[in-house]
Design a protein that fits this description.
The structure holds two protein chains of two kinds.
Chain A: H1 19-26, H2 42-45, H3 48-53, H4 57-66, H5 69-75, H6 86-90, H7 97-111, H8 117-129, E1 138-139, E2 145-146, H9 161-172
Antiparallel strand pairs in A: 1-2
Helix pairs in contact in A: 4-7, 5-7
Chain B: E1 2-6, H1 10-13, H2 16-28, E2 32-35, H3 51-67, E3 72-75, H4 78-93, H5 95-107, E4 117-119, H6 121-129, H7 131-137, E5 146-150, H8 172-178, E6 183-184, H9 203-219, E7 224-227, H10 230-238, H11 240-247, E8 255-257, H12 258-265, H13 282-296
Parallel strand pairs in B: 1-2, 1-3, 3-4, 5-6, 5-7, 7-8
Helix pairs in contact in B: 2-12, 3-4, 3-5, 6-7, 6-8, 9-11
The chains are: A mainly alpha, B alpha/beta.
């Protein structure tokens, strides 16, 4: 991770790599090892989201390795991953592209660029209730309205106030 | 045998059929479920936002489960199962991270030893309870029926963490189905992802994932798809109609949880197994099971 950024130039945009941002991405928790990648493209060939959303894990790994982190984050493509974990399973070099994508998502949120709504909604719901959603009413196939109580399920648990304050600390303490 | 049980978010807030059938079926196999108090989200939804906070949530839930003094923790949701396994793995290999998390846990007087054995429904039934008791619990063998299985990505990958079954050729759920007397099929799309985690950000793509797999399974001519993941169930059962519309296919494939199928084979009441909650057309399947049963039993 201490390797120098190669002195390359993106001929399309005239941009130089950003070594500081690259280090920030690589220091995020995960098992990402972009330097092990030899671009065999096994990850992208097995990627289900590639077929529909054109995400190419090997390109993301390659760009971060070179230091073009900002371009990847700004493109928004990191949010197209379905988290099926096939790339991590199948990589012959233990690169774990999915872990790198998660690290980049963390960084994108820190930098407040192109973030979809749902991950942030999860945070506020967890702060409020401890979970990402509350028990919902639903209907049977015969359109009878039911809920936990009516189905004979025990009461849904609640989290303590102490949890909420410690969770705030955890959010700040990364 | 007593096991602590962690339900997660999806199961106790909307996937009631899974919770109901698990609560019905496991005690019949000698498993007493101990619910946990003050647990929270497992951390998975926060992996994209703040990995540290996500690991903290997982560690906290595990510490609460350890406090029960029980040796085994049953984690029914695939995402939660991955989150717990991954957190234990990270904490074992990163001392600095471990210290930070330990300090946060101490705030609530909690401590994580990492002593629990973590089970998912599939390996608890297959590896701990095993073949004989399950076969013996069956009152009505499902002879003549054929099912496709759906494992869910997060209990089979990444294998380096130690998962529930083989990442490329999972068989345990298939064997569990076979122990009830039914047959299973291998199919090329078996490992395909359901798309659930894309549903909020890219709904059309997510429904296409689900629709294509359902279409493939329906074309196999099976009696249904038997499932072991609440997120996959949300896609394949709850959203089967819109998934079909997205890929231009008329889908009418019965999708049910393994515990629901096991309950039927045990001769339990359908409503207690939440079978009135499935949105996919399970009525025809249940009718067929009754016919098969009267023929074979």
């Amino acid at each position: 991770m201490t390797e120098e950024v190669p002195s390359v130039l993106d001929l399309m945009t005239n941009k130089r790599p950003d070594s500081k941002l690259r280090l920030q991405a690589l220091n995020k928790i995960g098992e990402h090892k972009p330097y092990n990648c030899y671009q065999c493209i096994k990850c992208t060939s097995g990627c289900p989201a590639m077929k529909m959303l054109e995400i190419k894990p090997h390109e993301i790994v390659g760009l971060v390795r070179l230091g073009f982190v900002e371009d990847v984050i700004n493109s928004g493509i990191i949010w197209a991953c379905a988290m099926c974990l096939k790339c991590k399973e199948r990589c012959p070099q233990e690169v774990a592209p999915v872990d790198l994508i998660l690290a980049l998502r963390n960084l994108a949120i820190e930098k407040e660029v192109k973030v979809p709504e749902s991950p942030l909604q999860s945070v506020s719901m967890i702060l409020e209730t401890g979970f990402v959603q509350k028990p919902m009413d639903t209907v049977t196939r015969k359109l009878e309205k039911v809920n936990r109580d009516k189905l004979g399920l025990p009461k849904f648990g609640e989290v303590s106030e102490k949890f909420k304050s410690t969770f705030m600390k955890a959010l700040e303490g990364s | 045998m007593k096991v602590a049980v962690y339900w997660g978010c999806v199961i106790p807030t909307i996937q009631y059929a899974y919770e109901m059938s698990v609560r019905e079926v496991l005690p019949k196999l000698g498993v007493e479920l101990v619910d946990l108090n003050d647990v929270s989200c497992c951390g998975v939804p926060l992996r994209s936002v703040n990995t540290f906070a996500s690991l903290y949530l997982a560690a906290r839930n595990l510490a609460i489960a350890e406090k029960t003094g029980l040796k085994d923790l049953l984690v029914l949701c695939n995402g939660c199962h991955l989150s717990f396994s991954e957190t234990l793995h990270f904490l074992k290999n990163d001392k600095e991270l471990r210290q930070k998390i330990d300090a946060l846990l101490m705030d609530e007087g909690l401590q994580l030893k990492g002593s629990l054995r973590i089970w998912h429904l599939v390996d608890l039934l297959h590896d701990l309870i095993r073949e004989e008791p399950i076969k013996n619990s069956v009152k009505k063998r499902l002879n003549g029926l054929k099912f496709a299985s759906q494992y869910g990505c997060h209990i089979i990958r990444p294998s380096r963490l130690g998962r529930v079954d083989d990442p490329e050729n999972p068989r345990k759920l298939d064997e569990l189905i076979e122990w009830l007397g039914a047959k299973t099929v291998e199919y090329p799309e078996k490992l395909d992802c359901c798309g659930a985690l894309l549903l909020l950000s890219h709904p059309d793509a997510a429904l296409t994932f689900a629709g294509l797999k359902l279409k493939a399974v329906q074309n196999l001519g099976v009696d249904g798809l038997v499932n072991a993941c609440p997120s996959c169930h949300m896609m394949f059962d709850m959203r089967q109609k819109s998934a079909g519309a997205t890929v231009g296919a008329k889908l009418n494939l019965p999708v049910l949880y393994y515990t629901q199928l096991l309950g039927v084979a045990m001769g339990l009441e359908e409503e207690k197994l939440g079978l009135h909650l499935n949105r996919s057309p399970v009525d025809e399947l249940l009718q067929k099971i009754r016919q098969v049963l009267s023929r074979y039993n």
